[in-house]
Amino acid sequence: MTGIGSGLYTVYIDIYSEHSRDGKAGNDMNEWKQAWWLTRSEMNKDKLQWLWTAIFMIYTGGMSGVMLLGQQKTDFINPVVDTFFLIMVPFQGFVFSRRSFRYIQEDSYTQMLAYYRRLPIPNETVMWSRLQQSLMAFTYNGIFFYGSLYVVGLHEEGFRWDQYLAFGITCTGYGLLMTGLYIYGEFLYSGKKYLLLSSLFLPLTIIISLLIRTSGSYGFSIVMDVSKSWGLLSPIMWVALVAGIAGLWLFSRLTLKKLSIRDLS
């Protein structure tokens, strides 16, 4: 099938058959183990995806730093800074593989789900794998994004390690929440419709940025100030983290419920 690594599924069938011979298929090979196997297979089959993703994260982190420096040199509070940050932070939950670049032309996410269903691999296993991939991506991408952001724009802000960690966790909490929405779109809609729904996020971020602007500051600065003042006790950090985890879990459950009745043909 176009856009899907056939070797991945051949290995799955071999592993499944081995468990079947032991009479323990479906018992020992539980959802978590299957999901971790899928995750490792997805992460290993395209080595260059890690390079492209790292380059993109270094670029976006650096651009965030440049915008921050520009904001600090003027009294005008530019909502573009927050808009850019609100859009880019959720991308930390992705690794830019061939599939992610072909989802419009080939509807690659739907093809993937249809193939998994025919194997069959349970929807719950596929969802666990997608969540595992997101957590791995946030960890990997965070190193490059926040590293370049610190080098370009925040190295003179006087952050202690715990303060900068609080800043990163706060942003990650927001990213986790948005990842739940993106997974909802990936699993339940065609590539073109998913693109359309994702595009609607842009005007929403602009509105949010303008609302923050009315406070006389910008969100990026507020998160930095609270992180520096409170460190790992930052109330914004804990609210963002809890909201992100809860939102990701709720969207995942809702997605699974609707995925079970989605026609993937």
Describe this structure in words.
- The chain has 265 residues and is an all-alpha fold.
- It is 75% helix and 0% strand.
- The radius of gyration is 20 Å and the shape is globular.
Short characterization:
Helix content is 75%, strand content 0%. With 265 residues, it is an all-alpha fold.
Instruction: Please report the distance between the alpha carbons of the first and last residues.
Output: 13 Å
How large, in whole angstroms, is the Cα Rg? 20 Å
* String of helices and strands: HHHHHHHHHHHH
Rounded mean pLDDT is: 83
Number of helices: 12
Sketch the major β-sheet: none
Number of strand elements: 0
Overall body shape: globular
Percent range for helical residues? over 70%
Q: Which runs of at least 5 residues are low in confidence (pLDDT < 50)?
A: 1-6, 14-28
Which structural category fits the helices and strands?
mainly alpha
User: Strand content of the residues, in percent?
Assistant: under 5%
